[in-house]
Amino acid sequence: MLEEPGRRRFPRFVIHIPFLYAPQSPWPASLGAGWTRSLSEGGATVELSGRLRPGTLLRLLLKAGHVPIEVEALVVWTGGRFPDGGGLVHGLAFTQIAPDQVLALRAIFGPPPIMRQAGVRMPLDVPVTCHPRNPAGPPLQGRTGNVSRSGLFLRLPQLLPPDTTLEVTLHASRDPLTVDGSVVWVEPPEIWKPGESIGHGLRFTALDWSTLLSLGLLLV
């Protein structure tokens, strides 16, 4: 599935999802983690912690929903570090992908003309502790509903107005992960139900590369 140099057979989309990777050998083998920056049926632009040489063959396990997608890929070029505090950029060409995995990959894009862009939300149901910072308030216990590279969907026992800043600790099976964010939207009152939690949209406000990798590992 290599694309011809200077010519792309497949349209590429700005999509951010986490993945695991390893040199082409049976799993598990010294696994690393990264995030895609763009994705197509023929390859991807990705962020990694360390630099890989062009010509390196990899196996990738991408996560965008309940079904993982496994592909084989070749590193075709490397670049610098993304200016937003991300990782080192690499260009990958997919060399082998099974037909059912192609279908799973296409499901990420969605049907034309409403292809997904950037913030693919992945299901994640873990307990959280939220510490309101501005305005300050007592800690709240809640749960996540889904997550993307840019934010979280939270269910909390009480309303927090938009622009409330939070420190959120995700209590997952691994070590707890703490992120900072700001509430950007709240479910409208007409859909609230007595005794049930209220949905909030949280946008991350400070997410360094180390935290982003931990989030990716949690998801994958």
Quick recap:
With 220 residues, this protein is mostly beta strands.
Explain the overall architecture.
This protein is mainly beta. It folds into 2 domains: 18-109, Thrombin, subunit H, CATH 2.40.10.220; 122-219, Beta Barrel (Thrombin, subunit H), CATH 2.40.10. It is built from 2 helices and 13 strands; from the N terminus they run ββββββαβββββββα. The strands form 2 sheets. A 6-stranded antiparallel β-barrel has the order 1-2-3-6-5-4. A hairpin with a 4-residue loop joins β4 (57-63) and β5 (68-81). The longest helix has 11 residues, at 99-109. The chain is elongated and about 55 Å long. The two termini are 24 Å apart.
Task: Record the SSE blueprint.
Blueprint: E1 18-23, E2 32-39, E3 43-48, E4 57-63, E5 68-81, E6 88-96, H1 99-109, E7 122-123, E8 127-134, E9 140-147, E10 151-156, E11 165-170, E12 177-186, E13 198-206, H2 209-219
Antiparallel strand pairs: 1-2, 1-4, 2-3, 3-6, 4-5, 5-6, 7-9, 8-9, 8-11, 9-10, 10-13, 11-12, 12-13
Roughly what is the average pLDDT, rounded to an integer? 85
Number of beta-strand segments: 13
In total, the number of domains comes to 2
Q: What's the arrangement of strands in the largest beta sheet?
A: 1-2-3-6-5-4
- Helix coverage percent of residues? 10-25%
Name of the CATH first level of the largest domain: Mainly Beta
